[in-house]
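Support reply, case 0932

Customer input (verbatim):
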Amino acid sequence: MKKIKLISVILLTIIVTACNSKEIIVFSPNGNIFAAFEIKDGKPYYRIAKNDKQIIDFSQLGFDLNGENALNKNFTIKSTSESSFDQTWEQPWGEEISVRNHCNELTVELQETEGEQRLLTIIFRVFDDGVGFRYVLPEQPNLTEFEIADELTEFVLHEDMYAWHITAYKGEYYENLYKKSQISKINDTVSTPLTIETNDGQYITIHEANLTDYAAMNLYSKHNSTTLKADLTPWSTGVKVYAQTPFATPWRTIVLADDLNALVNSRIMLNLNEPCKIQNTDWIKPSKYVGIWWEMHMEKSTWGQGAKHGANTKNVMSFIDFAAANNLQSVLVEGWNYGWDGNWSGHGEQFSFTKPYPDFDIKKITDYAAKKGVKIIGHHETGGSTINYENQMNDAFAFYKKYGIDAVKTGYVYKLLDGKELHSSQYGVRHYRKVIETAANYQIMIDNHEPVMPTGLQRTYPNLMTQEGVRGQEYDAWSKDGGNPPEHTTIIPFTRGLAGPVDFTFGTFGFVNPVYPQTRVRTTLAKQLALYVVIYSPLQMASDLLEKYRGKPAFEFISIVPVDWSKTIIKESKIGDYVVTVRKDKHSDDWFLGAITDENARNLKSDFSFLDKDKKYMAKIFKDAPDADWQTNPDAVVIEEIEIDSDTIMDLYLAAGGGIAIWIKAE
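Our regenerated output:
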């Protein structure tokens, strides 16, 4: 079969050449996907097909530049070259251990035939599950420093299909609820990843990889059609990107997946990032944590000073005791430093990152944590003031390092950085990269909240552990619309989750906030457990108040569920309705299953064919009780143990807003 496909590729190339077409085609290693490039009337275009079916029709490429002629016309092909990659590399942490980077590459060098005869290179890499392409502007005398006014990249989809999307710009930090609509009916500029279901039940995701010194890419439906146009997040000046040659853009990625398992297990984004730049990664360790955080949302305590200040020494030590007793490796502490008093959001210049409040004895706390075998996760809230943060950054990380703190949650709770720049602009991208690189110098891991959308940078800097960039569990505490709807978490794994780890902060056992009675956690308790398997992060929080966990047998699952995996399988799932995820622990032979549903109760079946043959396993099941319901009886959970093997077919009952979590241990 492989020989037949190889012959067809050669014949197609010969036919295209013989017809005097300018189309150049590069195939995936298995021959099922190809990207084609062509110059039409001096303008560059590309198209993509899979299994002889057109996916993306001829789509425009190029740039508009400020003060110069557009870089999208009067081109001729100067040269082309091809190469192949087949490498395997290992992740320090992840959803699997080894990643195969297998693709064919086409490099097309273009030159203008008129005017300044500027040069533009476009590189395509075609994988068995999709395509990545980027622009490279080589060093050249007629283009040195320049401003990008617009990136002209298009994705002209062959058919009108349904997509899950969130608006860009209108909601800060990507914290919006996903909508499903036809591409031609998308009326807003939307963020990527944009996940599309094809009319024959397959999937397309458009995103980007290796976002470096550039603006984040958004998309909009051009002229209410199936043409999606790139829209770069601008600076406050209106300029999209300031650059100088030599210069390379991020990769534009198009994942083409037969099913949801293939979609989640695509590694195109990671493979298009640079290899790890941290020589020794032994200090980078995934963990689970509790934290002084949810109690502020409950208004039990405060970030700022006063009688209810949460980050006091006694309170932190009680969290350390709990973590040590329950197999949780870390404790997050928010509100420990000067700057939280008064209206801190938007006034980040008042934060000190080396001056603790008087009731927070950092030495006593970290010494106590070390004796208990627990780590402290530090916190740097910037209030959007990146200048203030960068001025203190080295001192701040050195301060934490002195006390053995090797993980920091960063925050940017203000709609603009330094009062004028958007988080996902080139300005924001530069800042976030500086934080990650500086933290790596001090061997500190980062959990970035209010980030730019992830694009696989964790391959290059695996100290970037996880990021928010999602409407997370905190909305269940205080949002005016009452909280996240039950379907929300059935969408996240196939949209935001495709961009990288998600710090969603689930694990809430108390379902109502007495301070904001209009809100509630819209899940059952069993679903909160299942989310630890369904939504991936190498740092996972048990978010609730400690008293909500004490005496609850269901908390055992949070204590034992891993956060680092050797294999991930998406079983029967439907975006927006239900998800069934299976993962294997990286450090044992244990497997874990998590299944969740939307507002509808469901009866699903799951096989266990992923287990080793001729081997018996004990499955400890945490499931919705028959009368469980997220609105009327969310606490009702049944815990039972049964013996299973690879031939087992199990009925999975999911209550409305419910779930099931299973720990599978070899006997």
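We compared this against your earlier run and they match. Two observations from our side: Residues 2-18 form the longest helix (17 residues). The chain has 13 helices and 36 strands. Please reopen the case if you see a mismatch on your end.
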